[in-house]
Write a structure and sequence with these properties.
The chain is an all-alpha fold and 66 residues long. It contains 2 helices and no strands. The chain has one domain.
Length: 66
């Protein structure tokens, strides 16, 4: 799931689903590790997307000050 290009909202929904699965205690240890890895990739993608938006906002803010 994390390999696809997702919107930020879709990534958050997937993360929410993964958290629910991890909290359900129905996964094996190996499945839990895979879900954890998938979640960490999603978090990195979310962080990268938010950083890009933040940088754009900074640039817009700086251009309005000139």
């Amino acid at each position: 799931m994390a390999a696809k290009k997702m919107t930020l909202e879709q990534s958050f929904e997937c993360l929410d689903d993964i958290i629910g699965q991890l909290q359900s205690n129905t996964l094996t240890l190996e499945e839990s590790f895979k879900k954890y890895e998938e979640g960490m990739k999603l978090i990195k993608n979310c962080t990268d997307a938010i950083d890009k938006v933040e940088k754009k906002l900074i640039i817009i803010g700086e251009s309005k000050q000139d």
